[in-house]
Amino acid sequence: MITSKKVQEFCNRFSLLVKQSVIDSPWVHGFLEFIERHHKEKKHILVTATPIEEIEEILQELNIKHFFYKIYGAPNTKNDAINETLRSLKIGSEHAIMLGDSESDYKAAKDNNVLFLLRGTELNKNLQSACKDWIFKDFINE
User: Fold this and answer.
1) Side-chain-facing half-sphere of 26: CA atoms under 13 Å
2) Cβ–Cβ contacts within 10 Å for residue 26, how many?
3) What is the CATH number of the domain that holds 114?
4) pTM exceeds 0.85
5) Is the peptide bond before 51 cis (omega within 30 degrees of 0)?
6) Triad 95, 127, 106: Cα angle to 5°
7) Domain for residue 1, yes or no?
8) Structural domain of 70
């Protein structure tokens, strides 16, 4: 028999598996060196659809939480996170750049008039045509 307790148990197990797979996933080439080098001179804000508690745990486990000026996760929307960041830092959208790899990242940047740089992957080939002048693969300047 399926009970709400059993469903919650499976949801918790799934969440742990997903979190661990994110922690174990390979780094984008050059990212760690980039963020270590620039985190004191730039305000890096992380915007994700991952629940805020989970992303903070992941960042803590990876020992990179301190590189981010601010972290936004669900239930905040990406659009609201960008808008709030621009407002709280009192900067115009022309002074911000969003790096992302998804349609929702692209839309949130466009909705806030922020320049969007797409990390091109096999999963976002359709989006690459819209961002053709602003695509990067990794953080290595070669």
Assistant:
1) 4
2) 5
3) 3.40.50.1000
4) yes
5) no
6) 30
7) no
8) 27-136
